[in-house]
Every structure is written in C-alpha cells, then in structure tokens.
Amino acid sequence: MNLCLTISEIDWSLTKDAFSILGTIGALIIGTLGLTAWRRQLRGTSEYELAKKAIFIAYEIQQALQTVRNPMLHLSKEEVEAGRRLDEEQRIYNERMNQLYEKWAELQTIRLETKVVWSDDAHNSFNEIQQRIGDLRGAIWLHFWMKGAYAGPGAVVDNNPERVIENDKVVYFVSDNDEFSTKITEAISKVENFFGSKVRGK
C-alpha cells in the first residue's frame, strides 16, 4: 500500500515537472517571438528615422547651395573704402561655403549609415548633390580668378564676357527655375525618390 502511494507520488511529481518544463519552454518561445517582433519594430522605426533625416538634410543642403548663390553681398564699408572689396567678397563666399560644407559633412555621415542599411543604391542617391557642390565650388573659384584674385604680376586672365556670363549662371541665383537651380532640384529629387517610400511606408 505504501509502495503504491509512493509510486503515485512519483507520477504526480513527474507530471508537475513535465508541466513546469513545458510552461518554461512556452514562456521562452513567447518571449523570443516578442523580442523578435520588438527588434523588427525597432529596426523599422530606426530605418524610418534615418530615411527622414536623409531627406531633411538634403533639403537643408539645397537651401545652403542657394544661400551661397545669393547675389546680395553685405560688404563691410571699411573694407571697401580701404580698397579691399575683392577680399571682402571672397570672405563672404568662404563663410557661405563653409556653412555648406558643414551640412555636407552631416549628410556624409547619414550617407554611410544608409549604405549599411540599403546598400550602394542608397549611397549613390547622394552623388548628384556632391556634384552640384563641386560645380559651385569650381564656379566660385573661377569667378574670383577671372576678377584677378589669384593672378600674379603680369599674368593674363581670360575673362571674356561670354565666359563670365556662363560662369555667372552657376554663381548667381536668379530664380528657382534658373538652369543651375533646376540641376540642384533634380539632385535633391534623387534622394527624395529613394527615401520617400521608406518614410511614407511607415
């Protein structure tokens, strides 16, 4: 009789252990599924934020490019009167370009992050923005070279009117529809097209 009781107790103990193990396994499975879903949601949120940031800073660079091209120059009266008008113009353009470079450096960091997440296609969507920055930098250098800023004594500067007019199309903002503004807009559109669906798909 005592032997039967002991066997029953053992059976009940094994049953309890089995249920306990099954319960633990079930909890682990549910926990793993929940963690996976949370990670997926977190990744989706992170990618959304990254895509949104890429578009936003691209817009800021568009604005910075147009700020550099602003034909209005607030020259220092003292510098102009001292015969340093050209130096003062260069200082203003240098300040504007430095602000543009700061924004580009910020976008470069995001550009690398997007390459990690979405491969080369994401990285390459910024290529035309980089080209437009290079175009503007070169046009400003040429602008001052044709004004004689870098020419040494006796140097001949090719500043024929047609060359100046062509270069001024890049240097000076006229409207949102001028030739270079259109190229800037097209460059920004490449970023919008790539990341827009990732933002709207949230």
Structure description:
With 202 residues, the protein is an all-alpha fold. It has one domain. It is built from seven helices and no strands. Helix 5 (127-146) packs antiparallel against helix 7. The longest helix is centred in the N-terminal third of the chain and has 67 residues, at 2-68. It starts with a helix and ends with a helix.
Strand share of the residues?
under 5%
Average pLDDT over all residues: 84
Tally of contiguous helical segments: 7
The topology string of helices and strands comes to HHHHHHH
Number of domains: 1
What shape does the CA trace take?
elongated
Number of strands: 0
Oligomeric state as shown = single chain
Main beta sheet strand tally, sense and closure = none
Topology:
Elements: H1 2-68, H2 77-81, H3 85-118, H4 120-124, H5 127-146, H6 161-171, H7 179-200
Helix pairs in contact: 1-3, 1-5, 1-7, 3-5, 5-6, 5-7
Short description:
The protein is mostly helical and 202 residues long.
What are the main properties of this structure?
single chain, 202 residues, mainly alpha
